[in-house]
Sequence to fold (1062 residues):
Amino acid sequence: MHTLLSKTIRHITSRYLQSVKSILTEDNHLLSPVFAFSAPFAVAQQPILGIINPGRTATLVLLLIIFILGYVFINQAQKGKKFPIRKIAGFEAIKEAVGRAVETGRPILYTFAYGNLYGGYAPQFMAALGILSYVSKLAGQYDARVITTFGVPEAIPMVEEIMREGYRIGGRPDAYTQNDVRYQTTEQFAYAAATQATIIREKVATNIMIGPFAAEALIFAETGAAAGAIQIAGTARETQIPFFVLVCDYVLIAEEMFAAAALATGDESTAAVLGAEDVGKFISIALIILGIGLLTLLKVNLGALLSI
Amino acid sequence: MSSTIRRHGPYLTITLLILFFFVTYLFTTPQPVQLFGTQLVQWASIVGYFAILVGTIDIVIFHIKPLRSKESGQWQYSAVLLLITAIGLVTGVTGVLSGAGINYQPFAWLYNAIYVPSNATIYAILVFYIASASYRAFRIKNAQAAFLVLVGFIIMFADIGLGYVIWPGFVPLGNWINTYPVAAAFRPIIIGSGLGVIITGLRALLGRDVYGR
Amino acid sequence: MTAAVPIWDMFGLWIGAALTVWLFSFAFKDNALYKLAEHLFVGIAAAYSFTIAIDGILRTGIAPVQQGNILRIFALILGCFFFAKYFGKYSWIARFGPAFVIGVGLGISVTTAPEGFVLAQVKSSMLPLWTGDLLQSLTNILMTFIVLGGLTYFMFTFVPGIRGVTKVTKKTPASHLYAVLVKIGIYGMMIGFGALFASTIVSRVAYLIGRLTDLIASPEASIVATILVIAAIAYAYQHEKKTAVGKIEQKESKKNP
Amino acid sequence: MNSIEKINKILSNRQILYLLLIAVVLGIMLHPLGIPIGIAGQTRDVYNYVDKLPQNPKILMDVHYDPAGATELQPMAGAFLRQVITKSPKIVFFTTHNVGPIMFERLKGYFPDVFSQLKYGDDYVNLGFLPLAEATFASIAKGAQEFVAKDVYGASTADMPIFKVADKAADFNVVVLITTSTDPVEYAIRQWYTAYKMPLLFMVVAVIGPSVQPFVASAQAVGMLSGQNAAAQYELLLKKPGSAVAAVDAQSGAHVLIMIYIVLGNLIYWPMRRMSKKAGGKTK
Fold:
């Protein structure tokens, strides 16, 4: 192996090095890599007001704004205030997708990745479970079969509960079978292979994939497309979104899945929390516009203020 | 009393820990408090090993079931899996206890012969999926897709040597796209995920579902 | 011992090559050898993870206690809570282990995310729209619009026109601006996704190159393994025809030619 | 069935495409073409940054990759070590990927020229596998030696000279994160850059490159190498071509095959869409 590799390297090197010489002297930046704020900001050395750690005032202010607003919004929501959520195409498509399964008489596959509930992906799993409750209710109403595959051991009892409840609300409590709740280990590719086999063997009509998928995203999406299933996908792992965008019929891009979960569960406090998050984005937009304005017109640096 | 601890204990633990780090990170605190914070993060990190142990045990339990019920077409594989796990555990734990660690020769042979090539191959399968997905999905169905395909092609040409031969400008153009528009495109997602973390923290502070119920 | 090593090394190479070919065969058709290879992989992975975790606990948990860092014993106790889930009566204890991990994890991420993920990104989005250099200025303007558009796209509740869902919505300047920004946001993201897709191809091809490099190293083993896997795939096709699923498939394909 | 449908059937036959792909990559690997490589600005930035590091730089390195990612990342790690070795560095290695310890041994075996110049315990140390958690990153920053009592070989870290100069966040001149996943990138941004302003240098697989770009653009990281092509460019800048340079020709071949398939797919897509519209069918 080493001889082959070194032979290859020697073969190419001789040709490369000729071109390298010229390349080395060129600058291949289209632009110089200098940003307005590429240099680290000067950080204050003394505690602010005597108690706040230097450089962390802006963090404190932002955290307090969102915490307080979030708390107020949740309280308002519990008192009956509505926080309407904008239309989300991927969410609305779920009805159509369930309908497709009913028409063809073939099952719906709902899968939500693998992992555990105490890592950073817990919110995505919880969103996936929220949307599952909606799907299982629809399936109960319209007489469709849902197969759930996943690799989250702690979620097994929750999924069973959600499915049973969904069929019960839909009026067909007897439609629930334990066999349709399939936990397939936390090992990435064991889970991937098992879910892929499920897509093929059960000839699913609808393939709903919502969760923090990693490399297996493409495997499921491709297999589902080959099986001719209508596909809805959602993930907040940005590295997998392109495949879903290209291969699937509807995609919940990043945070859309949390909004869809709020719509699916109808839980007003979840919607209220989304409202608080929107305030955060609104603050970001306002700061950016203000910062640009000050910088372009007055050459004043707002970024420095945020670094206190 | 004990039922109160059972139900509210975990949530209270989470709330108290978040408050502790909120205070110690943002405000000046005495040295002993800081040192206690260091202890806490060290413990939380080490506990991660135990989570791995539990995950392994779960996999073994998962494969004992088909072996017991002689599930057709599966139990033989489960048997193979349990056998290789047992061999691996015996050699591995022997190595660790003898002080040689994971470089204990029989264990090293096992992972070099089985684990390393399998791990690399199972990801390499994806090249086939991305190739067929490219043919079927990389289609200019509308303006958005056209945009995606165009950028994809420029980056592809910038990534490979052939692009440089066709037009040397592909390299700086690709570099420009990567450093400026692509950075801008993912920025809202990052800001969103940062806000998401804050919101999760708020929900946890209020004792709402972070995990389980 | 010295004589035994090359034999074992050879054996290891053969197994490695066989597993590589068998796992690759999955892309062509699910077959018995793939399943065998997959279960071997998962089995050894489980054993490996277990071993390395035990090793880690010894190095970072038990060794410090022996060296006098008594407080570290709390880490071990918290870790042992995880096992409570296998003992029905005490399974409630098992929730304290994850609770501690979640608490610390959120505690340190909630405090650092505002600056690291929000404010830093906001700060570097404050670009001067005119720098004196045309290309740089246009780049800054482009970036600004993409960022603002993306942020607008990810707003869900405070959106112009949303409260008039039931009524006929009137086009206001705000809703026009919103629509334009959302459109820019979508196109901006398409740039990102296009780049991501192209980059992914680089990675996946690199994996293939890595595997083929190893296969070339042991050509005999690769060829034998390939012949075996072709046989296994052929068997899988034959077997499928005999089974019920295969028969149904054949019937359906006759029905709908 | 008309001719277009026939062509589509052949092109969408996965098995044929897969075999073609293997044939192209294998063929070019056995008979390299020697296509020149252009060097991207981002790679040169990294090279220049490392070049400007002071003498005796203290370096923290997270070897977070598995055998699959090694094809892309091992050449980068090796090239970085080769560039920095002239400054007689002090390097603390650890890994948050469970296969990391194996990959470190392979890295060591693959670049003996580097490691023969370093003395274990004085110039470098390997802390072994630590769980992938945000707390791990925070713990390392607060003091690596106190956190890990014994190194990967079971030796006590307490009396290793390297930890006298490279232990806490403030000691390190640069942190190199070699990773296949975005998780450690996020943890590093939060626990290392935000909390301690440690200079981060990312070496990532191409898959996650673009999604890490905003951190580089906002100067939260000093630079990034993304993918096998960047590894090859880095090797060329060092004038020490290695396995990444050897692989770029096969990359070109595979890319061209995939691009041809994409173009053909689009050429076929439009007539087929027209046909199915005429037939009154729904397109998908």
In short: Chain A has a mean pLDDT of 84.
